[in-house]
């Protein structure tokens, strides 16, 4: 079965959905992303849906789950590139995706993710030292 | 009112749900629906197709191109011989789900199309008709 590629971009993970997903693919994306967040100690996830010309309630739920999973694993999620027709349809469907941060494009998405990390008082250099703490003698 | 064109697609697997979406998109484009109207139709089709697969235990969709006094329309008839819906009013309520979904498939789709018809009988099956006009 095909898998949606997850790219590492510094402390963030970038997922660009470019295929018409069937339900099982959406579920495996959720699982893969969760695993990768932990494996790569990611601080943020950017979900690029600019190529999606349709988001139904199943996919909307996957997006909401990814945001929640990210939060549980100390990563911020931002969804970028929602097409206007998709936004209109989601509102009509009755979905508002509360709790999911959105941004217009990848640039704005990265800016927001970086600002979230800055707010937490951590930057790239701090991340290098993280793995050492467990071995430090007290 | 005339049925200009008609095709039937099976909905017995997840990938066939994707096929239905793509067919509905293609036809909406051919009928020159606006981008927003196309998206609404495709999304409604996706919701009901999924219901047909998961709750109806598999079925078919009849896709019809309609012509009525110079206006063109797209009609989708989803049919299954599944368990049927025992409480239709409840099923049509926003947020109600008998499964693990968001409960917006039926009630939401109703809002995305011009005409929505549902006929169901417990133990026999369900037929849902979605129509959008240009």
Shape assignment of chain B: globular
Largest sheet of chain B: 5 strands, antiparallel
The chain-level mean pLDDT of chain B equals: 94
Give the low-confidence spans of chain A.
130-136
Output the structural class of chain B.
Answer: alpha+beta
Across the major sheet of chain A, the strand order is 1-2-3-4-5
Strand numbers in spatial order across the main sheet of chain B: 1-2-3-5-4
Strand count of chain A: 5
Helix content of chain B: 25-40%
How do the SSEs of chain A run, as a string of H and E? Answer: EEHEHEHEHH
The span between the termini of chain B is: 14 Å
Which regions of chain B have little confidence, pLDDT < 50, spanning 5+ residues? none
Describe the structure.
The complex is a heterodimer of chains A (138) and B (134). By secondary structure, chain A is of the alpha/beta class. In chain A, 46% of the residues lie in helices and 16% in strands. In chain A, helix 1 (23-39) runs parallel beside helix 2 (57-72). In chain B, helix 1 runs antiparallel to helix 2 (35-54) and helix 2 (35-54) runs antiparallel to helix 4 (105-112). Chain B has helices at residues 14-30, 35-54, 88-91, 105-112, and strands at 2-11, 59-68, 71-80, 115-121, 125-133. The model of chain B has no long low-confidence stretch (mean pLDDT 94). Chain B contains four helices and five strands; from the N terminus they run βααββααββ. The A-B interface holds A 20-24, 53-58, 60-61, 83-86, 88-89, 92-95 and B 14-15, 17-18, 21-22, 25, 35-36, 38-40, 42-43, 46-47, 50, 94, 101-102, 104-105, 107-109, 111-112.
């Amino acid at each position: 079965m095909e898998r949606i590629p997850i790219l590492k971009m510094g402390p963030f993970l970038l997922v660009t959905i470019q295929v018409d997903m069937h339900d099982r693919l959406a579920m495996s994306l959720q699982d893969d992303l969760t695993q990768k967040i932990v494996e790569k100690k990611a601080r943020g996830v950017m979900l690029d849906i600019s190529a999606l010309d349709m988001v139904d309630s199943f996919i909307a739920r996957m997006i909401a789950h990814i945001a929640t999973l990210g939060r549980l694993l100390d990563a911020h999620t931002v969804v970028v590139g929602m097409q206007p027709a998709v936004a209109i349809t989601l509102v009509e469907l009755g979905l508002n995706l509360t709790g999911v941060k959105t941004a217009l494009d990848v640039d704005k998405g990265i800016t927001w993710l970086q600002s979230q990390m800055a707010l937490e008082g951590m930057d790239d250099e701090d991340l290098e030292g993280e793995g050492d703490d467990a071995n430090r003698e007290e | 009112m005339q049925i200009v064109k008609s095709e039937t697609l099976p909905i017995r697997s997840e990938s066939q749900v994707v096929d239905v979406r793509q067919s509905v998109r293609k036809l909406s484009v051919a009928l020159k629906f606006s981008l927003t109207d196309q998206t609404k139709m495709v999304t409604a089709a996706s919701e009901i197709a999924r219901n047909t697969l998961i709750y109806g235990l598999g079925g078919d969709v009849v896709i019809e191109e309609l012509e009525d006094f110079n206006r063109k329309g797209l009609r989708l008839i989803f049919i299954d011989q599944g368990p049927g819906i025992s409480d239709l009013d409840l099923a049509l309520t926003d947020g109600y789900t008998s499964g693990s979904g968001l409960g917006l498939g039926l009630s939401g789709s109703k809002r995305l199309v011009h005409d929505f018809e549902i006929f169901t009988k417990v133990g026999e099956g369900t037929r849902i008709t979605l129509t959008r006009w240009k």
